């Protein structure tokens, strides 16, 4: 996350351009495909050399698991980055929440075309916001126009402000009330703008429908069936359990690194971004999701029905948004599914191929104090993912396979147009 006041968004600041893969590979690597494990290590070391305190990457295919680490897990002790340690996953939480809401739709307990007011009467009101006009699909796809509450819970964007305010707690209703002090970005369905308020409301809808908290439903419907024993929704418990790497935020350009391993509860404790997991559990979740083991075909199709993310929103060109799931294009054709997550001092970037047979999760454990460095480092992450999911033809990607991947991308984009307009 960029920590400039205008860009506090609770989701990662992604690259503003897709860098051609050929420009990112050294000449000798373009001539002959590098060993993936060696290339992964070089990429992780490159991130470390660019100022990230700790980096870990977990790559899984149908045949093997590869992990690399770089940097340190604790600046004060110099201990190494934890092996598959616990991670804050930030807005990656949104995919879990969207999955539960879609399961409820598949059970006939709600409709994606229900208005927010159907389930939360009178909550979305004021300054032009109207819950009668916003439907659940628009919450999940960020086409509601509802304002984001995040800026209201970061009154002091500094190291001192983090320490003073990190223990402050809010209820979901209080978060929504803060958002309702602002006017909507656009009329429902007539644009796209990332807003964490959407998923706070989605979590409240889950409770209104089931009588249980969204955390309970995530545990019952996803974590237990998939045996994700290292994934939890901790609520207002601010600490990371077990083995983990420490997170560090630089609150001003060139400033000191502040240990931000303890959650910032004003925005680390709700359905928009509170969960904790590991790279192994995160990979297992996304693999199960895209392979249809969590949603019936009709609901998975709805989740993957995408709209275009407009330019200048901090996403790579060609990025499209589904329901709690983003599609990002690859330089070799096709693309990958995932949902990044970030917060003070960390960035998580999961990416899975459409068939779920290859998935990589990258985790960074520090964030810089200036936007240009944040963008450059995130660009390095997306380049790493592109290299990993787009091996050169001599590494097993035949011309026919590359052509098939491009056709998949063309078919995906032609069948999921943004009918709402922007």
Give the SSE layout:
Blueprint: H1 21-24, H2 27-31, H3 36-49, E1 54-61, E2 65-71, E3 87-88, H4 93-106, H5 116-119, E4 125-126, E5 129-130, H6 136-141, H7 159-165, H8 172-179, H9 197-210, H10 214-226, E6 248-250, E7 257-259, E8 276-277, H11 279-290, H12 297-303, E9 307-308, E10 320-321, E11 326-329, E12 335-338, E13 341-343, E14 346-352, E15 358-364, E16 366-367, H13 371-389, H14 399-414
Parallel strand pairs: 6-16
Antiparallel strand pairs: 1-2, 1-15, 3-8, 4-5, 6-7, 9-10, 10-11, 11-12, 13-14, 14-15
Helix pairs in contact: 3-13, 4-9, 4-12, 8-9
Give a written overview of the molecule.
The protein has 422 residues and is α+β, with helices and mostly antiparallel strands. It has one domain (5-414): Beta-lactamase, CATH 3.40.710.10. Helix content is 34%, strand content 14%. It has a five-stranded antiparallel sheet with strand order 2-1-15-14-13, sandwiched between helices. A four-stranded antiparallel sheet has the order 9-10-11-12. Helix 3 (36-49) runs antiparallel to helix 13. The protein is globular. Residues 1-7, 12-34 and 393-422 have low confidence and may be disordered.
């Amino acid at each position: 996350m960029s920590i400039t006041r205008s860009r506090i968004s609770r989701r990662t600041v992604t690259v503003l351009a897709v860098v051609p893969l050929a420009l990112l590979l050294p000449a000798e690597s373009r001539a002959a495909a590098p060993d993936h494990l060696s290339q992964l290590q070089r990429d992780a070391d490159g991130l470390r050399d660019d100022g990230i305190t700790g980096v870990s990457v977990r790559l899984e295919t149908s045949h093997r698991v590869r992990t690399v680490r770089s940097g340190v897990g604790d600046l004060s002790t110099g201990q190494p980055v934890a092996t598959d340690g616990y991670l804050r996953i930030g807005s990656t939480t949104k995919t879990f929440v969207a999955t539960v809401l879609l399961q409820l739709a598949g059970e006939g307990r709600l409709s994606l075309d229900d208005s927010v007011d159907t389930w939360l009467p009178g909550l979305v009101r004021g300054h032009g916001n109207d819950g009668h006009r916003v439907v659940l699909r628009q919450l999940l796809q960020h086409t509601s126009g509802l304002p984001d509450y995040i800026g209201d819970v970061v009154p002091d964007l500094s190291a001192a402000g983090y320490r003073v305010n990190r223990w402050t707690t809010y209820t979901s209703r209080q978060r929504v009330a803060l958002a309702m002090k602002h006017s909507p970005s656009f009329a429902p369905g007539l644009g796209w703008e990332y807003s964490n308020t959407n998923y706070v409301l989605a979590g409240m809808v889950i409770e209104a429908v089931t009588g249980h908290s969204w955390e309970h439903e995530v545990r019952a419907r996803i974590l237990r069936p998939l045996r994700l024993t290292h994934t939890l929704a901790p609520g207002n418990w601010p600490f990371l359990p077990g083995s983990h790497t420490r997170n560090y935020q630089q609150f001003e350009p060139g400033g000191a690194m502040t240990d931000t391993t303890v959650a910032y509860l004003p925005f680390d404790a709700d359905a928009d971004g509170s969960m904790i997991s590991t790279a192994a559990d995160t990979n297992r979740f996304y693999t199960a999701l895209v392979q249809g083991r969590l949603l019936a075909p009709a609901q998975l199709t709805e989740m993957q029905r995408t709209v275009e993310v407009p330019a200048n929103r901090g996403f790579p060109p060609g990025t499209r948004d589904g329901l709690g799931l983003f599609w990002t294009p690859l330089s070799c054709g096709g693309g990958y599914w995932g949902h990044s997550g970030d917060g003070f001092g960390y960035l998580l970037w999961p990416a899975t191929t459409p068939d779920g047979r290859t998935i990589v999760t990258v985790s960074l454990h520090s964030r810089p104090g200036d936007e240009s460095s944040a963008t450059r480092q995130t660009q390095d992450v997306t380049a790493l993912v592109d290299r990993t999911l787009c091996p050169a033809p001599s590494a097993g990607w035949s011309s026919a396979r590359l052509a098939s991947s491009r056709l998949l991308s063309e078919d995906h984009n032609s069948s999921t147009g943004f009918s709402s307009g922007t």
